[in-house]
Specification:
Strand order of the largest sheet: 1-4-5-6-2-3
Number of helices: 7
Distance between the termini: 22 Å
Low-confidence stretches: 157-163
Order of helices and strands: HEHHHEEHHHEEE
Radius of gyration: 15 Å
Length: 163
């Protein structure tokens, strides 16, 4: 991963653009509502509750990280699987997203827990706001990327990886 500075402004986008960043998944309900179909395409949906940092993942997110499906994954464990430069960039963008109520897209490298090695993943995140406009969570999509994929700022349906 080679972040371009200034990182938050390069990779960050306003919430009104959320549907544009997720459109390849959102427009096809047979994929968006089907956990197995998402996982087969190297996609996982995720949610982080900011009150306790608990994570909820679909099967594809577990597969990308090389973790047993439906296991309890503390945020500290998932963050530890990011390569150091990717983790630093992700944490900076995460804090920026929470503070400024903006989404972000970032290509990162992770070390899979099952020993399969390092892989590239596109992380798309958007804040979840309560009725008062406070950020109470983050949610989005994780997409497994083939080796050698160039960086992008949005979900790319042409790089689906069949697991």
């Amino acid at each position: 991963m080679r972040p371009i500075e200034p990182l938050p402004l390069h990779h960050s986008w306003p919430l009104y653009e959320l549907h544009a960043h997720l459109s390849p998944v959102i427009l096809d309900n047979s994929i968006a509502r089907n956990d197995a179909a998402l996982a087969e395409r190297g996609l996982g949906l995720w949610h982080c509750d900011l009150t306790d940092n608990s994570l909820r993942w679909t099967a594809g997110a577990y597969d990308i990280f090389g973790l047993e499906r439906d296991s309890d994954v503390p945020r500290t464990l998932s963050a530890s699987l990011y390569a150091p430069d990717s983790r630093d960039a992700m944490e900076r963008l995460r804090a920026y997203a929470i503070r400024h109520k903006r989404g972000f897209t970032l290509d990162v490298d992770i070390h899979q827990a099952d020993g399969q090695g390092r892989c590239a993943m596109r992380l798309i995140a958007a804040p979840v706001l309560n009725n008062d406009g406070d950020t109470i969570g983050l949610h989005g999509v994780k997409q497994l990327l083939p080796r050698g994929t160039t960086g992008s700022r949005r979900l790319d349906p042409t790089v689906f990886v069949m697991l």
